[in-house]
């Protein structure tokens, strides 16, 4: 289950020190202190510490014997061995991680309940219409959804809900979000907000220190707001930029944006960008397609069901292409390169890109 | 590196490229066996409208946004050819969400579907280009 092929590090002349935590960053000395007090000197450093699950202080949570996060492979393996065909599982959080967890457990547990304080599922990326379609799909697949409700306190085996109801469970999963691991930079006096603050070349406020991925806070290219946009495409492109700049380049990466693509019980759900003026909306039993614009440009879309060629829309958002001269209704109904003109196609389909 | 290029003005809109692609990637020896009564699973598609038609398949970009965005490491480059390791693909379709050309498609068994230039199948080089009657699709080195 490795992301990279086995030979990747050797091929690229990289020494990996696995299983050791970087404890302290000493920017003046240009050194990192690891667990076990090994000193690692650097000329250029990149901090890619990712994020960790948010675990709020629910009353009585310490009494729950089988409580899990759903972040890394170890979490998944431990959860798998804690669940059997008789288990009743309660998942707190109906975001991507909670719902992916529900899908993974489906068929392995007797009952799966997912609750969320928000009135809709995946509230961070979907609107009411799309969310209702996804919720219906989840219910059809046997998931017991409890929206606008969450656990307030626990005893082992029982969650006392905000609504006053009790939910009995054997296994608890908490999936309410992640928080950036910023301690190394903060501890060294670097700028940190919700994530590590960097410039558009991924350089932190500390000399010779860069950062990338889930641990950083970046400007959303679409909304202009600063926040943690913890998805892999942003992480990978930020990391690439940081790496090049550490080697002396002056690259800029200013295209971080929100986007999500997920399959749940055979249904595909995608969203990108942000909502704005809705310029196209099609909602039916089988799916939904909605497009949003701001300042004459496409700023977001949400779709469920048929997601073919959605990248054509994403690139309009990412590259801030003016919609002037593009028949958005036609493009919404049939994503293709037809409306971009012969010259554009000649360059893209007839040239090296 | 040789890539597939499209000469739009020569495209007849015959869709033969889609059939040749589906056959070449079917692993079957007979085109009839591969395609008869089955949905055409093709890695190239023809777009048409207003008297224009042209085929679209993976551009094998120099800086492939699909590869950078792949959450499982399934998409990778083999000397510039962007390939997909189906055993690693989790079917999240982030590649479909980011390809600016609409050239990566949701595949029939969950994994994403994309052109790998037929380098790994019996055709050996792009079947779409080999079979294009009007040379609207060519396989060559352009700079
Ligand atoms: C269940 C789940 C599903 C997801 N699904 C998607 C999806 O469908 N699409 C998508 O785009 N994104 C998805 N994500 C998010 C995606 O996984 C992250 O955006 C991505 O992994 C971020 O990469 P990263 O390198 O910044 O951080 P990580 O992948 O988290 O890597 C950080 C690494 O740093 C190590 N580390 C941390 N602190 C230290 C330290 N002090 N010393 C040494 N090592 C340290 C950690 O052990 C870890 O290995 C998902 C996440 C989860 C949890």
Short description:
Chain A is built from 9 helices and 23 strands. By secondary structure, chain A is of the alpha/beta class. A 5-stranded parallel sheet of chain A has the order 6-13-7-8-9, with helices on one face. A 5-stranded antiparallel sheet of chain A has the order 19-20-23-22-21.
SSE order and pairing:
The complex is a heterodimer of chains A (353) and B (143).
Chain A: H1 8-11, E1 22-26, E2 31-34, E3 39-41, E4 45-47, E5 51-53, E6 67-68, H2 73-82, E7 88-92, H3 96-105, E8 111-116, H4 128-140, E9 144-147, E10 151-155, E11 158-161, E12 166-168, E13 171-174, E14 178-180, H5 183-187, E15 196-197, E16 209-211, E17 216-219, E18 226-227, H6 232-246, E19 259-264, E20 267-273, E21 277-284, E22 287-294, E23 297-304, H7 311-318, H8 328-333, H9 342-349
Parallel strand pairs in A: 4-16, 6-13, 7-8, 7-13, 8-9, 15-17
Antiparallel strand pairs in A: 1-2, 2-3, 5-14, 10-11, 11-12, 17-18, 19-20, 20-23, 21-22, 22-23
Chain B: E1 2-6, H1 16-24, H2 31-35, E2 45-49, E3 52-56, H3 65-69, E4 75-78, E5 81-84, H4 94-98, E6 105-106, E7 112-113, H5 127-131, E8 137-141
Antiparallel strand pairs in B: 1-8, 2-3, 4-5, 6-7
Bound molecules: flavin-adenine dinucleotide (FAD).
């Amino acid at each position: 289950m490795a992301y990279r092929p086995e030979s990747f590090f050797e091929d690229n002349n990289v020494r990996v020190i696995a299983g050791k935590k970087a404890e302290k960053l000493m920017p003046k000395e240009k050194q990192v202190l690891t667990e076990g007090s090994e000193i690692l000197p650097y000329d250029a450093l990149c901090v890619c510490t990712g994020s960790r699950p948010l675990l709020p202080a629910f009353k009585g949570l310490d009494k729950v014997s089988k409580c899990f996060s759903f972040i890394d492979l170890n979490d998944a393996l431990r959860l798998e061995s804690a669940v059997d065909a008789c288990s009743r599982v309660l998942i707190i959080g109906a975001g991507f991680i909670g719902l992916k967890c529900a899908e993974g457990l489906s068929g392995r547990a007797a009952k799966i309940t997912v609750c969320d304080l928000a009135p809709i599922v995946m509230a961070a990326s979907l609107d009411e219409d799309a969310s209702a379609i996804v919720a219906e799909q989840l219910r059809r697949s046997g998931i017991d959804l409890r929206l606008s409700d969450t656990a307030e306190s626990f005893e082992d085996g029982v969650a006392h809900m905000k609504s006053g109801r009790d939910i009995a469970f054997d296994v608890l999963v908490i999936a309410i979000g992640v928080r950036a691991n910023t301690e190394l930079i903060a501890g060294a006096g670097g700028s940190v907000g919700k994530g590590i603050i960097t410039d558009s070349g991924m350089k932190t406020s500390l000399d010779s220190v860069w950062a990338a991925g889930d641990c950083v806070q970046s400007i959303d290219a679409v909304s202009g707001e600063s926040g943690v946009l913890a998805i892999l495409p942003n992480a990978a492109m930020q990391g690439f930029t940081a790496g090049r700049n550490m080697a002396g380049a002056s690259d800029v990466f200013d295209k971080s944006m929100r986007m999500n693509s997920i399959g749940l019980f055979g249904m595909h759900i995608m969203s990108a960008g942000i909502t704005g003026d809705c310029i196209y909306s099609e909602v039916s039993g089988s799916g939904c397609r909605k497009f949003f614009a701001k300042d004459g440009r496409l700023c977001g879309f949400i779709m469920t069901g048929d997601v073919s060629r959605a990248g054509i829309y994403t690139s309009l958002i990412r590259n801030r292409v003016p919609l002037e001269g593009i028949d958005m209704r036609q493009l919404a109904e049939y994503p293709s390169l037809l409306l971009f003109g012969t010259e554009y196609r000649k360059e893209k389909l007839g040239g090296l890109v | 590196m040789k890539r597939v290029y499209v000469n739009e003005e020569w495209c007849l809109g015959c869709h033969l490229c889609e059939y040749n692609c589906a056959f070449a990637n079917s692993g079957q020896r007979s085109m009839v066996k591969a395609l008869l009564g089955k949905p055409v699973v093709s890695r190239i598609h023809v777009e048409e409208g207003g008297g224009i038609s042209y085929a679209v398949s993976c551009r094998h970009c120099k800086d492939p946004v699909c590869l950078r965005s792949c959450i499982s490491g399934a998409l990778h480059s083999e000397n510039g050819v962007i390939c997909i390791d189906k055993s690693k693909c989790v079917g999240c379709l982030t590649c479909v969400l980011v390809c600016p050309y609409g050239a990566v498609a949701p595949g029939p068994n969950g994994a994403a579907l994309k052109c790998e230039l037929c380098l790994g199948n019996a055709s050996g080089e792009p079947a779409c280009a080999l079979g294009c009657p009007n040379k609207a699709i060519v396989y060559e080195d352009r700079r």
